[in-house]
Specification:
single chain, about 180 residues, alpha+beta, 2 domains, 5 helices, about 55% helix, about 15% strand, globular
Amino acid sequence: MLTAEQHEKVRGWFTGRLPAGLFEGPADVTVDREEITVVGRIAEPQLDKDASDAERAAAVEGRIQEFRERTRGERVEVAREAEHRFRKKVSWGVRCGADEALFTHVSAPVMTRLRQPERQVLDTLVAGGVARSRSDALAWCVRLVQRNADDWLAELSASLEQVRRVRAQGPDTAA
């Protein structure tokens, strides 16, 4: 896991390197061991106030696709520089209104050992058609926990950062 300072350096580099006007405001930059994900807000399409939900959804989808195609060259250039500099893949996404779309992302394999009751949960999700495989079922479970435990996970992440800061001040660190 990256330290807060390393994450800040990555975020700062993207803030300085992204072309002016690419997004409305600063981009959200998220970093893990495999990937840097850059998500920015783009302008919503202008619609009549009496536009239907279907029309709004189609307009947002079109705006996202237009942005993706129009900015592809710029984003690829920035990603190549960042991948060389930080040794991580760069993924892109946008927010348009209440919608978020990721254009690219890394799907990293994760190995785990599960006991029978845990495997039965996954097998039930597969048998019920919620997931195609145990792997899909496990990813579904992680997304469910993520959606329902955001505050708890944020507090845990902040606590881990505090532990890293305290360790860095310990007697065994080089002055």
